[in-house]
Structure formats: structure tokens, C-alpha cells
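Hi all, posting the design record for the shared folder.

TITLE: backbone redesign
STEP: 1 of 1
STRUCTURE INPUT:
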């Protein structure tokens, strides 16, 4: 029998836990059908943590059957009030276990515990509280009068079995924003965590069971995207799929839906979000927000303001102060333990991602010969893990690959603009449209930008300042559909129209 649990010690926080390693199907942890496993690595040290069971196509089918039976026999007949009670139970357990969940995120994903991981759990708690209270408030239909003897009404009904694929940059937070909304809407869920950050969601599954959710309502099946993700995308008995990740893989999910049963799709994909700083902006505040928007979570944020456009009249002053802020507030050197409060910028997720980001830095430095500033020498001396110093490229032309490609690391490009029209043209010159930010004291200019920018989210005088009550999603190649807020429930409901004829004659 394969090992389905292991003991994990986190001495920095004096936390000990029994970590599940199996697939979570029908409220039980079980081995994969072929016994294959995936090794997960601590990105702060490059050392293995443990290995967990890796699902395959047979396991996906097993999870789908469990979710379908749970939906048909139990969950579809469960009142919205009772679903709210389950979510409220879950909320209490998350609050009790938040330190352990945050610690697992730090261990598995390299998130600085005090500045990042605990903040993620605070948002998860807020989100769960929101959906626990929203269960019976968003699934409202309407009555439509037609003639004297005829009317129609609509019902908002769940899709049924929903598959969800979540990324490694916010393993549990992304899972919860999808899972809680789908459950509130009345769907059953099969969720696939990223293969290099599965521990926190597997532990979270124990809370699902403790909260009283019936077997099969939530199933967690870690595994490789090429196997599990593909099987979920093509499965004929899955009614909807929600994916967060790269635009390339999102396209594959969309294609799989078209080649199978035309399952409904929600996609949150890549971004290359612009931040515009006008000459009338509060410069210090703008720099504070811009730095946070690119260096937080080591730049591994799909909405990171990785393109910064600064009005030419203040460009030099901005660049000088931006470098000073990066060095003072976001330096990596000597701060290699993500459990230490001094660690603000953690490692990137893996050696693969480290090498990818490094190649972009080398390209900007050697091939494109761009102006470059780094808070520390790179590679960083004394670092065992995948640490990359905050990196600023200046005077970057619009044609640069560093400006056009999503690098997904603590790397930012800074360029000039002359006036509003020039700024808008540069900001919209991308295939992405996930998020954007503008810094100005001119209210008219700010609202014009919000109107004209092709992006799903606009921040005015802030950046990456989300709230669980506000819908989130992208334009263009950044995705399809919305999650969070009321949209986080609506996206998991479909509309049924019912026609009523009161006349006995016709």
C-alpha cells in the first residue's frame, strides 16, 4: 500500500502536521491507480519535501463518477441554506488552521510567510465568508409577462460537475475563489492543483470533510497537466471547466472543450499589464504601488504591472526614485528564509522558471543592451534556492521581447510617453488585456483611461488592489469570463427559461 500521509515539521513556526499525499475522491484519500508519484521541491532550498500520488485518466474518471453521483443524488437536492451552513463550517476550520495552511504555502511555493502567505489566507477567509453568506442571494431568476394568458420565468441552475485547474503562484487562493463560488452555486467540483504546489490543497481537503460536505462534492486530484488537465478538458461527463494559467495552455483547454462536449469555459490567462504614471501623479505613492505591483510574490502575478510608462517630463526622477525604493524595500540579498519576517521577496517557483527568467534578463542585458538595475548581484551569492533580485530595465523600446512577453518574475520594463494619446496607444499595444493601472490627480484623465484601456481591471492610483466582492477577468488573450463577487457564483449557473400558458383554448 502506498504511503498516503507523511509527517511534516516546520520548526521556524513550531508547526507539526500530518500531510495527506493521496488523491481525495469521495471524501477519502486513495492511491493513484498506477501508483505513480510526483516529487515536490522547496523552492527556497531546492531540496525535496515529499512525494504525493499522481492521478491519471482512470483516476479522473473515478473522480468524475463520484462528483456526478454526488450531484445527482445529494448536492442538487441540498437547499441553498444548507450549502451556506457547509461553507460556514468550512470558514471556521480555515480560521482555525490558517497558520498551518499558510505555512504549507510557504514551504511548497516559497511565499514569504509573514508578508505573503498569511495575507493570502486572510483573503481566503474573507472570500469564504462572502460566499457562505451569498449562497441564497445570487441565484435568482425573473418573471417575464408575455400576454394576458402567458408569462415566462427563468431559473438559475448549476451546471452539474465542474472541473477546476489552478496555477502554482496562488495555489490555495485560486482554488478557493473557484471552488467556493461553484459550491455556492450548487455544483460538485473536481479540482486539479499545480503539480509543484499541491500540498496546501490536499491538506485543505481534510477541512472539506470535517466541514460535513457529502462525499463526492469536492474531489482533489493532483497530477501532471498533460495527463490530468487533458483528461478533464476532454471528459464527456464534465459540464464546465474553469482554468487559470498561461494563455497557451488556456487555448488547449478551449480546444479540448470544442473537441469533446462543448463544456462551458472560464479562462483566466496571461497578462502584461501596464502602469501609466502621469506628470501630475503623487510620485512617491505611484512608485510605492508600482514596486508592490511587480515585486510582490516575486513578480509571479498574472496582473503584475510589468510594463511601466512614465511621462517624459518626470521620467528621470521616477527612475531614480524607483531604483532607490527597489533597493531599500525589496532587496533579496541575505534574506533567503521565507519563514523569516525579513524575507520580503521569496524564490521563484522552480529551477525551470528560474532559468527562463534568467534568460530574459541575459537577453535584455547582452542582446538588446538595455539599461539595467538589479538590487543585488545576480546570481545571488549564498542563495541555495531560486532567488532572483528585483530587476529594472529602462528606456525599453516597444519592440523589445522583454516588453511584449509575460516573463512572470520580478522583472519590470520602464519606458517614456509624451501625452495621453501616446500613453494609451502604448498601453493597448499588447495581445493581453488582464489588468492596468494609472496614476494621476486629474479625475477626468483617470476616467478617460478607465474607459479607453482594453483591460478587464483598471486601478486608479493603486495597483494589484483586489477585493473578493469585485468581478475579475480579462480582455483579449487574457481570458474568457469572470470570477469573484456575484460573478463568482453567476459563472457557475446557467439560465433555464420556462413558458406558462394559462389559457385552456390555445
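Okay, here is what came back for every position:
SEQUENCE:
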Amino acid at each position: 500500500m502506498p504511503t498516503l500521509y507523511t509527517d511534516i515539521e516546520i520548526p521556524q513556526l513550531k508547526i507539526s502536521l500530518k500531510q495527506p499525499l493521496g488523491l481525495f475522491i469521495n471524501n477519502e484519500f486513495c492511491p493513484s491507480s498506477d501508483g505513480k508519484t510526483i516529487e515536490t521541491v522547496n523552492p527556497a532550498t531546492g531540496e525535496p519535501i515529499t512525494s504525493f500520488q499522481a492521478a491519471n485518466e482512470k483516476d479522473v474518471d473515478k473522480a468524475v463518477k463520484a462528483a456526478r453521483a454526488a450531484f445527482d443524488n445529494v448536492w442538487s437536492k441540498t437547499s441553498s441554506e444548507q450549502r451556506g451552513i457547509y461553507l460556514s463550517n468550512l470558514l471556521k476550520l480555515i480560521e482555525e488552521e490558517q497558520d498551518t495552511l499558510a505555512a504549507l504555502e510557504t514551504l511548497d511555493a516559497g511565499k514569504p510567510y509573514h508578508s505573503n502567505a498569511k495575507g493570502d489566507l486572510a483573503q481566503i477567509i474573507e472570500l469564504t465568508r462572502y460566499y457562505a453568506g451569498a449562497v441564497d442571494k445570487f441565484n435568482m431568476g425573473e418573471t417575464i409577462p408575455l400576454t394576458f394568458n402567458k408569462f415566462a420565468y427563468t431559473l438559475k441552475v448549476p451546471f452539474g460537475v465542474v472541473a477546476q485547474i489552478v496555477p502554482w503562484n496562488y495555489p490555495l487562493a485560486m482554488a478557493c475563489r473557484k471552488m467556493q463560488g461553484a459550491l455556492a452555486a450548487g455544483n460538485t467540483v473536481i479540482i486539479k492543483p499545480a503539480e509543484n504546489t499541491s500540498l496546501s490543497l490536499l491538506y485543505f481537503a481534510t477541512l472539506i470533510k470535517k466541514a460535513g460536505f457529502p462525499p463526492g462534492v469536492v474531489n482533489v486530484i493532483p497530477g501532471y497537466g498533460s495527463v490530468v488537465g487533458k483528461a478533464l478538458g476532454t471528459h464527456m461527463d464534465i459540464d464546465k471547466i474553469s482554468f487559470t494559467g498561461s494563455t497557451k495552455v488556456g487555448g488547449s483547454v478551449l480546444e479540448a472543450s470544442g473537441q469533446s462536449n462543448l463544456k462551458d469555459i472560464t479562462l483566466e490567462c496571461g497578462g502584461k499589464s501596464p502602469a501609466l504614471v502621469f506628470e501630475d501623479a503623487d510620485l512617491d505613492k505611484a512608485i510605492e504601488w508600482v514596486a508592490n505591483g511587480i515585486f510582490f510574490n516575486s513578480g509571479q502575478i498574472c496582473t503584475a504591472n510589468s510594463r511601466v510608462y512614465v511621462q517624459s517630463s518626470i521620467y528621470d526622477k521616477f527612475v531614480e526614485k524607483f531604483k532607490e525604493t527597489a533597493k531599500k524595500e525589496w532587496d533579496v540579498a541575505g534574506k533567503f528564509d521565507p519563514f523569516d519576517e525579513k524575507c520580503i521577496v521569496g524564490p521563484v517557483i522552480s529551477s525551470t522558471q528560474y532559468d527562463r527568467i534568467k534568460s530574459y534578463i541575459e537577453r535584455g542585458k547582452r542582446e538588446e543592451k538595455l539599461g539595467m538595475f538589479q538590487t543585488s548581484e545576480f546570481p545571488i551569492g549564498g542563495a541555495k534556492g531560486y532567488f532572483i533580485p528585483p530587476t529594472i530595465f529602462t528606456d525599453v523600446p516597444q519592440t523589445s521581447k522583454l516588453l511584449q512577453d509575460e516573463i512572470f518574475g520580478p522583472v519590470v520594463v520602464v519606458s517614456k510617453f509624451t501625452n495621453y494619446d501616446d500613453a494609451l496607444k502604448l498601453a493597448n499595444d499588447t495581445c493581453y488585456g488582464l489588468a492596468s493601472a494609472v496614476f494621476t490627480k486629474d479625475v477626468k484623465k483617470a476616467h478617460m483611461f478607465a474607459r479607453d484601456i482594453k483591460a478587464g481591471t483598471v486601478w486608479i492610483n493603486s495597483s494589484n488592489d483586489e477585493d473578493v466582492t469585485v468581478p475579475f477577468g480579462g480582455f483579449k488573450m487574457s481570458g474568457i469570463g469572470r470570477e469573484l463577487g456575484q460573478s463568482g457564483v453567476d459563472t457557475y449557473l446557467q439560465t433555464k427559461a420556462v413558458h406558462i400558458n394559462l389559457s385552456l383554448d390555445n
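COMMENT: The chain has a mean pLDDT of 96.
Let me know if anyone wants the other runs.
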